[in-house]
């Protein structure tokens, strides 16, 4: 399996008259792990919600795997040529379902495989996030880090070509942050999916990403490799590096 | 500042904004109702989720429904017996029977379901909306209406008529209890039941059942509408829950009037 390319051109979004995205242009090649960094309130999560179709694109275009995102969304699930999965900031597990049911949800709802196959897929996905055997637990019994890993397992269960992560390490301690980072890096190495990670954690972005996009004032102000980012002279990037404790 | 500038000013502005707000909620509820019917038509509802909702809405409400209906039936007899002391208490049976089957049973159970299960529905769906669970469903190509609203809608529409029949029975039994025990009542339990059976017809029970189905639809669609449109964390969930209950009560009464008017018109 391989990833799909994502392209954004001139994407605008405003809330109550306030411009959040002001003409975002971004190209993510297939298989790349891109981190989008920026301070809180800069529209990072909005960007992901636009790519996955949770919010309407007001102006500009978004294409995923060569398809305009609106066309992709209008397709019946069984006709979609590739799959997109999203890991939400607070994991967004359905509280009334067990871990196993959460991970199996998309497969069961679309009846894409037999019960046995789905059960095996769920077990494999949970094993990949180091939560093997936790199928019968309820989300309320899990720690924050475990819930995030279940959310990642839910994404992995459908073999997605594109995975979007919204602040995957928010509210986690440094050790758990490292574990989640290692998990995302491992997914890139083993699966080849395109991954876009939105985070305000620059250390995480540097550790796992192929490239880092800096979102500020509603635009991508720089798109660089982790090493090049540290040497950036752009004032908004310098400001963010300084605020993150990584620049002078 | 921006919010203040956008807020409507003056009596006309505020009245206009309130009317628009009401129309928006009614429009959203109507759209959700249509979407729910479409979802039922195009896909068989998940039986397991339907059973879970039926147990929540029906089974778990039986105890409180019994207490409510029993005391309403008892109060009806006590009140009416006093008023009819100088005339004839022989109409106590028909009075309680018709009141319970045509009006008290459906409206009480509608209120009970809205207050108990409806508030829980609004809070649950509101919490799911706030914490991105509904967004997660959408990203998985799962229609939230089919997944979340349809089982609640079907369960409420099925459970409420059954609860109405149950309330009718318990309420009438409560009335009989007072007739048999209260020295202020001069008729016998036998006369109470006989006169009631003479006056209460199948049509009266059917009107109550039609109301039950209609109120069940209101008691599920309104909370689901408020739940799905919830924004803004815990405060938003609390506001949605309160609004869902108040709106359900009001719409049940409006619908009650319409059904009564239509039933008399047909008669």
Model description:
The complex is a heterodimer of chains A (248) and B (267). Helix content of chain A is 37%, strand content 25%. Chain A has 248 residues and is an alpha/beta fold. In chain A, β7 (162-166), α6 and β8 form a beta-alpha-beta unit. The longest helix of chain A has 18 residues, at 174-191. The termini of chain A are far apart. Chain B is mainly α and 267 residues long. In chain B, 85% of the residues lie in helices and 0% in strands. The longest helix of chain B has 39 residues, at 92-130. At the A-B interface, β6 and α3 of A face α6 of B.
Strand percent estimate of chain A: 15-25%
Give the overall pLDDT of chain B as a whole number: 91
The Cα radius of gyration of chain B reads 22 Å
Sheet with the most strands, sense and barrel status of chain B:
none
The pLDDT mean of chain A sits at 90
Number of helices of chain A: 9
Largest interface, with Cβ-Cβ < 8 Å? A-B, 23 and 16 residues
- Helical proportion of chain A, percent range: 25-40%
How far is the N terminus from the C terminus of chain A?
42 Å
Low-confidence stretches of chain B: none
In short:
The complex is a heterodimer of chains A (248) and B (267). Chain A has 248 residues and is α/β, with parallel strands linked by helices.
Give the topology, please.
The complex is a heterodimer of chains A (248) and B (267).
Chain A: E1 6-15, E2 18-28, E3 33-37, H1 44-51, E4 59-64, E5 67-68, H2 69-74, E6 84-87, H3 99-109, H4 115-128, H5 144-156, E7 162-166, H6 174-191, E8 194-199, H7 202-208, E9 211-216, E10 219-224, H8 226-230, H9 235-243
Helix pairs in contact in A: 3-4, 3-5, 4-5
Chain B: H1 2-6, H2 10-42, H3 47-57, H4 62-83, H5 92-130, H6 133-139, H7 144-181, H8 189-199, H9 202-228, H10 233-266
């Amino acid at each position: 399996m391989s990833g799909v390319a994502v392209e954004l051109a001139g994407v605008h979004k405003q809330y109550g008259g306030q411009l959040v995205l002001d003409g975002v242009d971004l190209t993510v090649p297939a298989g790349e792990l891109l981190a989008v960094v920026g301070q809180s309130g800069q529209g990072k999560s909005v960007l992901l919600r636009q790519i996955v179709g949770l919010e309407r694109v007001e102006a500009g275009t978004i294409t995923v795997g060569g398809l305009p995102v609106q066309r992709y969304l209008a397709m019946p699930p069984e006709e979609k040529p590739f799959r997109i999965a999203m890991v939400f900031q607070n994991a967004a597990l359905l509280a009334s379902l067990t871990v196993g049911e959460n991970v199996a949800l998309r497969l069961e709802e679309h009846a894409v495989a037999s019960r046995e196959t789905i059960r095996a897929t769920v077990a494999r996905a949970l094993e990949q996030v180091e939560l093997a055997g936790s199928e019968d637990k309820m989300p309320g019994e899990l720690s924050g880090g475990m819930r995030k890993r279940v959310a990642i397992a839910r994404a992995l269960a459908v073999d997605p070509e594109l995975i979007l992560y919204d602040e995957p390490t928010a509210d986690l301690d440094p050790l758990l942050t490292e574990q989640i980072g290692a998990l995302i890096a491992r997914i890139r190495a083993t699966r080849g999916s395109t991954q876009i990670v939105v985070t305000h954690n620059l250390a995480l972005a540097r550790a796992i990403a192929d490239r880092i996009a800096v979102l500020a004032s509603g635009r991508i102000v720089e798109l660089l490799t982790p090493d090049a980012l540290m040497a950036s002279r752009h004032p908004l990037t310098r400001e963010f590096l300084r605020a993150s404790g990584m620049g002078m | 500042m921006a919010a203040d500038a956008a807020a409507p000013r003056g009596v006309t502005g505020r009245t206009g904004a309130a009317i628009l707000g009401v129309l928006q909620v009614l429009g959203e509820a109507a759209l959700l109702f249509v979407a729910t019917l479409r979802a039922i038509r195009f896909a068989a509802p998940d039986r397991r989720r339907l059973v879970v909702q039926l147990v929540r809405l029906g089974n778990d409400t039986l105890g409180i429904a019994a207490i409510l209906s029993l005391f309403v039936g008892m109060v009806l007899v006590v009140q009416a017996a006093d008023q009819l002391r100088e005339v004839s208490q022989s109409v106590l049976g028909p009075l309680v029977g018709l009141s319970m089957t045509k009006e008290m049973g459906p409206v009480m159970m509608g209120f009970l379901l809205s207050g108990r299960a409806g508030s829980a529905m609004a809070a649950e769906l509101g919490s799911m909306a706030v914490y991105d669970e509904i967004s997660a469903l959408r990203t998985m190509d799962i229609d939230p209406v089919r997944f979340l609203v349809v089982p609640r809608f079907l369960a409420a529409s099925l459970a409420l008529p059954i609860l109405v029949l149950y309330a009718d029975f318990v309420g009438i039994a409560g009335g009989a209890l007072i007739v048999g025990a209260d020295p202020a009542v001069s008729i016998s339990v036998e006369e109470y039941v006989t006169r009631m059976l003479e006056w209460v017809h199948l049509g009266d029970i059917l009107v109550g059942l039609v109301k039950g189905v209609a109120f069940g639809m209101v008691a599920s669609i309104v909370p689901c509408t408020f739940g799905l449109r919830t924004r803004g964390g815990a405060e938003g969930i609390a506001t949605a829950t309160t609004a869902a209950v108040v709106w359900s009560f009001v719409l049940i009464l409006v619908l009650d009037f319409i059904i009564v008017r239509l039933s008399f018109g047909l008669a």
